[in-house]
Amino acid sequence: MSSRARALLGFLVAGLLLAFIPELTEAIDLPRFYVIFLFTVFFWVAQASSWNVLTGYSGYFSFGQGAWYGIGVYTVAVLTGKHGWSFVTALPVAGLFALVAGLLLGVVVFRLRRLTGEIFALTTLAIAFVLASLARISPAIDGGTGTFMTGTPLPSFLGEFTTAMYRLTLVVMLLTVLASYLTHDSRLGWGLFSIRDDEPVAGGLGVPVFRYKMVALGINAFFAGLMGGVWALQLGFVTIDDVFNIRVPLFVILMTVLGGLGHWMGPVVGAVIIYTLSDRLNSAGLTDVNQIIIGSLLVVLALAVKEGLYVRLRDRWVTTLVTFVGVMAITTVFDITRSLISDFAISMVATVLMMLIPKGVWDRVRGRDRPDGGEGPPVGMETMAEAGK
Amino acid sequence: MDLLAQGLVTGVLIGGLYALMSLGVSLSWGALKIINLAHFSFILLSAYLVYQLTVSFEVDPLLTMVVVLPLFFVVGSLMQIFFHIVNIDEFKSLIVTFGIFIILQSLMQTIWSADFRRIGSGLNSYESGSIFIGGIALPLPSMMAFIAALIIAIGMSLLLSRSYFGKAVRAVAQDEEMARAFGVDTNRVAVILSGLSAAFSALAGVFIAVGQTIFPGLAVSWFGVVFSVVILGGLGHTVGALTAGVIVGSAAGAAAVLWGPLAAPLVTFLILIAALLFRPQGLLTSRSVA
Prior knowledge:
The complex is a heterodimer of chains A (389) and B (290). Chain A is an all-alpha fold and 389 residues long. Chain A is 75% helix and 1% strand. The longest helix of chain B has 31 residues, at 2-32. Chain B has a two-stranded antiparallel sheet.
């Protein structure tokens, strides 16, 4: 079986296993909160993964995540709330609108000869603010009053609200990660990596630079919008300040930079870690400290673990497994925190701390067990190496 | 018509404040290749400090400058030393300063809460003052900010074009390694310039504390205006920043009068996008930094 077929099978199995967690929690009488926690993680995994396809793979730093997400939220809110569409028909339109908006931006921006990464970043930053102003001015979109989503009927086969949200976010999340994975290990992915490394050379060697960047931006916008559309239901009351704020782009950047920019697993790992941590801090009543810790993490990790946590977790997988399972076992058996999520968070933090040990120290302690003395190729580059084999 | 004229004049004066807010970002991006998002929280932090000092010690708000400006000069210098130690590039600076921005934002939110703060009119004699010329009111706080921006823009421009320090800054902006090879102490130049940039941002904060109500969410709302001004004015161009500030300010002022106050941010951001797309090198540019 090829590695891609194996991975696809893996996605299918993971999806099937995850699909029945709501029933499982009911069967063993866990609080409903666990399901809500999980689908919020799914939301962030999808957002971060879609962002990674553009920024991680092609190297074009985007602040535009909030714009694509916001378009998705508002499409569903306006179509179901003001025009009486059903949710199921409105949801694909949310993805499509975000896709169209993304491609429109791409057509203008990627045609510019003088475009640099910084100019692109600031343009995407401005897009979200322009959309927010438009929504505020136009009564057809919002007009500053907000839209109630609580009465939106959902198809009955999805079950009651929490279960339905869980299933919807799960499907969109799996599709997003799958798209991110398939892009990573494909001609498109290698093309994007080469654009990131040296765009003029990539173009000179025959990579269709413009088309690949458009596709990456399209994937980013489409899945962010689709997940935004689902999330409109969870928001309940959609307002401009809630939707177009700095939170979504901020968390997405943070999660991906932490997990590893450029590898498809990076944002998945990052999203799980950051969301779990921020959820625990919030529930411990440390909301104010939350952002401070997260900001500090961004600074430290951007400077200290340049290749991202995922690569380190993979290279030190024995340590990862032992630390995580060990701490998890201790906390669960002695029931230290009385909450599975807190146990999970503690084990995770312990594992991450093990990963923070600098490379130099690590190699000295463990001895160099690789012929090249390194810790694996830089993120993304391994696909190029495999392609050459 | 009078209303439009008033809107334009107010806009031009606010443009001075915009320029003052943008100078720090512009200088550090243009000359040091650091896109410093932390400047947005510097401006707000300085405004909060001015508010706190004025209220606690019941002094004239403009007097607090004596404390606030040197303080931020030191903060800015230390920040550059930190960036130098961790060897940061343009792209990474965006991420790292974004992290610093978040930290400072939540610190301010923790200390001063999300409430609206304003220096009481008993302590602030400038707030409600206006000068009238032919039926058009010139509000005192924006007037002062405009004059300060004018002095700093011209002063910095002269400093950069005439002095040895200015020559060194321009050399660093053009090619840092070459400048070092020719004996310029590039680290010292960078540290001083970063300190100056932070002090300019702090000065903008002083006028904001004097002229308006402050709250933590304010910093994010400045992104569009400041980057419009920085890009339109040209990276590292102080006079360009002032010109761009006036253009953006008066356009937003006119839009507010013609289409209502909600249209003002839309116009600002459309100017930013237009500037990014058509004149990413700035409006009146020939040299890299001046």
